[in-house]
Amino acid sequence: MKLWRIVQEKKYLLRIFLWINCIILLILLSFSSLIYVNVEKNVFQSEYEGSQKVLSQMKYNIDYLDTMIRKLTFSTYGSNDVKALMYLNDEETYDHMNTINKLNATIVANYPFIQSVYVYNNHKKMYYSTFGDLYHKDVELDKVLSASPPITPLKAIVRKMQTGGSSESPIYETVLSYVMFENVDEQGIMDGAIILNVKLDWLVDNIRTINQFDSRTQSDLYILDDNHKFMETDPNRSIAENPSAATIKQAFETSVSQERVHAGEPAGFFSSKVNGENFIVSYIYLENTGWTLLEAKPYKEVYANLKQLMDTILIITAAVFVGALLLTLSASQGIYRPVKRLMEQTSWSGAVKDGSLEPGLKDEFSYLTEVYRKSREQLYEYHLEKNNNTSIMKIYFLKKLISDSYSMNVSEFEDVLRLLNVSLSQDQPFMICVLRIDEYKRFLSHKSLAERELLRFAIANITTDALSQTCVAQTVDMKDDSFTILLNTADSQAESVEFVKQALVEAQSYIQKHYHVSFSATVSSPITEYTAIAAAYNSTLANSSYRYVFGTRSVITQALIDDNTGSVDIEHVWVMVNKLIEVVPKGNAAKTEEKLRDVFQQIRKLDYGSIMLVSMQVVHQLKKTIFEMNRTSKEPIAIPARLMSRELYEEETIEQFEQLLLEAVRSIHSEGEEKAIQGNQVVADTVKEIIDSNYFDSSLSAASISEMMRLPAYKLSKISKIHLGMSIPEYINQVKLHKAVEWMENSKLSIQEIMQRVGVENESYFYKLFKAKFGMTPREYMAKRTR
User: How far is it, in rounded angstroms, from Cα 5 to Cα 354?
Assistant: First the structure.
């Protein structure tokens, strides 16, 4: 019980103690974690670099073999004897059969990794083979060649090949097939091709050597082909049926984005859990073949020493924290000492009893806050009681003056002035000023009563001080959104109004800057007869409604209103409203907005009553027009919620009202505009497809595409620049140049032949386009590729 009483009495002291220790502990843990994470990262990076060396060597071997086989396939394809057999229509002769024997003797015999060579004849739909029978049938190859998308020439294809057995129980071997062809027929079938089938024995030997190099690491190496399937490198064990390998493959596909791999990050690593054990998986992408090499190493061997490091860090952290506890206790007592003295000095209030706080008070500071709150309430009640009657009487006498000044005699008027402000004099001209708080609904909802009273006090006093620099002012809070100021002014009417306007602008700026509240002000003309004060007040109060036209923080005078109104006939405005309503159903959003802005530009020049009448009529006509449009429309338009809301008519300025109507008009037309954008996208996609499919046509142009699509050329050009980012001729040239580069990189065609294939007839024009695009001539580009 004694311990609990100490806790209750010293809540803030304990809070200081705990907060300091929490901060120290957080710093220690952060520092320790940073050390551990940094060491872990270095170990991880070291293991990754070792794995990348292995994978890079493997990649080099595969790329080297791939390049050699590509060249061998391409050179074999260029043989005249092979082409004669490839395009043979008649019966085979001894010379044709001898071609197969030469291939067997020169290629298969000299390159031990070559399994066989096929020559495909499209006229006879058969393969001439160095493996097995001369007329060879390879069902698995036919499946690969007929698959979609079509194969790429000289790209390694991982497939199965029947090397023995019978049709009921065939024996398959995994091979890599390199296919070289140039043209396809109308059915998309190769018109003739050479196929080299490569054994995987060399690949199996490489992987076995790497996997058995260091038995301590238990690392495994896998190869994924371009379809993300395991390449079976071990004839005695299927990798695809290995659960661990399948898990690593799934983790790779989940953790590594293929777009990222192909876009410049061909190597990296990630962690994965296999059968409850963590592994570090390194990968590298082979650009030439589209394969991916994976190497998996177990965590437990990589991080053998990290656990010991972690234990050491924890022991050091605990020792430092214990020492920090003792230092924190002494520091907390020093910080708490001023609070303790304050508690002793204010304990007379009764909030502290028997060494503990009253219920509801969390700590010592909540107790001190409660003492301050009660003291402030007492002072506020005292000042309210002291000044309340005076404020009420000032409001009473001012209201009496502005309601029936015309019935007062001189002595009654002097009594009222004396009660309002002894400095006011009937010998000087008077002016009435009405202040109105802007955004009054927001002012009421976002401020507490105490805040509102403080802000009202600030507005009244700061404005009075500003006006008192040039005249005598008496300000009275009317207890609504307005204040009424009675002024004694100088003799000159023009100077008096100008001085008052300048003082009001200064007061507005100061209050906006320091209190974030704004108000508008309306000033009457100078009054020489006191009996006219009531009429002047009524006129000024009515003029304050013109805040709707001139906006918030405006200073309104009768001269300003006269300059703005009277130049526009309301009948003319009605005509403009009718023209606006005629434009809305046509679906032209820009034209509708323009007409709406023109209407409101003229509405602003009407008197206040006419402004409200015409504004409401515009809303009514817009709703009526939407109803009419929905009668004939297949897809009805929803009436914007703004047009149906009562709050639309409660906006304080015509600018806000106009903006809400503009938003409503935009929402009416947005659906039609979205459909137009979708239609333009379809046109752009069609133009792109036509160019991509007919780039070899030398007559292809913007005019021919325009005629083909039956659309105006200027419209197609505009759509192309928006959706393709360039004109149609520029896109045609871009496609032709990229196709030309593909032929330069993947064939031995001459520049003239390539020009014919991409549909360019003028050689100098082709050279000019190519150099502008790639910074070198076609001949220089081809020379650079062969180096």
Answer: 9
